[in-house]
Amino acid sequence: MTATPDDELWSAIGDPSRCQVLDLLVSHGEVSASWLAERVPFSRQAVSKHLAVLERSGLIGRRKQGREVLYQVQPGRLDQATRAMTGRAALWDQRLAVIKRLAEATHAATKENSRNDE
Amino acid sequence: MTATPDDELWSAIGDPSRCQVLDLLVSHGEVSASWLAERVPFSRQAVSKHLAVLERSGLIGRRKQGREVLYQVQPGRLDQATRAMTGRAALWDQRLAVIKRLAEATHAATKENSRNDE
DNA sequence: CTCGATGTGCAACCGAAGGTAGCAGTTTTT
DNA sequence: AAAAACTGCTACCTTCGGTTGCACATCGAG
Hints:
Two copies of one chain form a homodimer. By secondary structure, chain A is of the alpha+beta class.
């Protein structure tokens, strides 16, 4: 149920630092690891590791130009990720509605013990 | 920009296993750690740790009943989480649109090579 | 061409987090 | 009272995020 094949995508996005790197890549089209490292609170090697993970998950691609390696986001895969997020959010929203409805129903039927939780 | 105060929320949700536990909690209203452990591919202790993290982030609450401890989701906080997800998804979607537009534009007019640094 | 500067990759290391197993404490049940 | 069922705590292992240091490649100036 929760274990969709998007799981790799999810764990790639799940890390806040990685998400930060991804955000930078999404904002600026094609940049190098060093460029990213200057705009992020951790070292270039850490950035590099995150880029490797992102690349392995298919979220970004690389292009070597001279001594630099330029990374850019893969629109299709990122779109897939956003869909996964939106989908889960929608599911939870829906479940939440049910929960609230149940809670109110229980609260309305105060035939048993009248107790206020929350 | 990415470092919102929802960051704790994000890292709590970010872990796939934890997300799985949360999903179960959202689906079934109020259950125990052992009950969850039977429906998840890892041990009860692991579940317990995840529950602790989720509770610390405010996403779930606990209620002791006899020898059991029943956990339930906190609707308000979960709603906040879903908003964070939806928000990020929307942002990426928007950036993606820009990227696609730029790509097409660049492809059309191959004259300029100017790039923006910050 | 040579040398320094810049950008990258690799390996070792450290601390935190996810996961497991084992044992002790408590409540329920018989 | 004793066994069963849940929970909590501790110890331990492995993985991951992060840092440091060093070697390699490329660019630019002399």
